[in-house]
Amino acid sequence: MTGRWGRAKIPAIMHANVVIIRLVFTGILVAAGYFLKPISGSPWFPYSGDPWISASVGFLIALCIIVFELRIRRASLKTLIGAAIGSIMGIVGAFLIGILISRQEMDGDVKTFLTLALTFFMAYVGLMVGAAKGDYLELSALGGILTDKASRRDLKVLDTSVIIDGRIADVAETGFLTGSLIIPQFILRELQQVADSPDSSKRQRGRRGLDMLNRLQNNSSLDIQIVETDFPSVREVDLKLIELGKQLDAVIVTNDFNLNKVSQLRGVSVLNINELANALKPVVLPGEAMRVFILKEGKEYNQGVAYLDDGTMVVVDNARRLIGKNADIAVTSVLQTTAGKMIFGRLWEEPENSTNSGEHRINGAARRPSREPRNGPSPVRLTDTEPITET
After folding, report:
1. 113 to each of 44, 101, 108, 127, 360, how far by Cα in Å?
2. Assigned architecture for domain 289-367
3. What span, in angstroms and rounded, lies between the C-alpha atoms of 379 and 343?
4. pTM exceeds 0.85 for this model
5. What's the CATH fold of domain 153-278?
6. 165-224 pLDDT, tens digit each
């Protein structure tokens, strides 16, 4: 609590210091105008002799400078460097052209006007073009002397599938998801279209996605940003996500297997929530005991199928008669596939050698357990409190 409060006070102190500096700067310009009277005796101002007129001019100049400073602070380091280089090149070019103009035989006022107009024109064009092309600068070539903080931000772009899934909100609330979460405007439009679909199942999924967005926005510890960036020339939403990820140098968070592969081919980093869920599934070893609910019949004869809370399929031999009931089983083998993990087991009360010599069949092919059956006492149950007798 103390650390968080200390971190919260630092930006407030910095903001107060900036305000004080601006007030001091404005006061210096106002005082300079009052005492120095820079516009006294000017034919353009009827009351130029009044020192408060000069002080007011100093105040207006200070306001213009502060407004310019507020605007320029939002620009990235690359934009500032590009604008500076462009304006300098424009002024140098205007100076060289001005030398040619000064050697021409024409009225002095015309020469002055042309030189001044050309200087402003070249400086303006150089400033705007340099700022626009500043993103092409590679600051890493300077050996780390200058680094753009914005380019090192941790940005994550959310896909429609991961928003509707909803687990991203749980992961974010645990604090494992850092950085800024980017939600593009075209993703919001797609969610709204799904929520307004005439199909009831799609409509329910869309509304769930909108509820998940509200849940993310209500989390004060998250930085949620909605960006208006769009790519009209790109039709598919997945390709728009990839283009946005490349433009922002961000990571795409998705559940879509195809988007995952295409993004990797395009050089965009991807975080897949399904891969995270598979990595966090509990480890089950052969010989362990568990209680499962036999939900349906398996593909092979007399098999029963159950599911763990995380969705892992459990295939139990000789469990067809127990469909719709809880059963105590002993794990005999674990199969890891690209789609997830499968667990094979036998009923607790059955002898270990009664399951067709320890073989399980997957799609018609026989598969032996990864570990030989144990001899001696049966393993201790993990989820049941009843006494266990040795077999």
Report:
1. 20, 11, 9, 21, 93
2. Beta Barrel (2.40)
3. 17
4. no
5. Rossmann fold (3.40.50)
6. 888 888 888 888 788 888 888 888 888 888 888 888 888 888 988 888 888 888 888 888
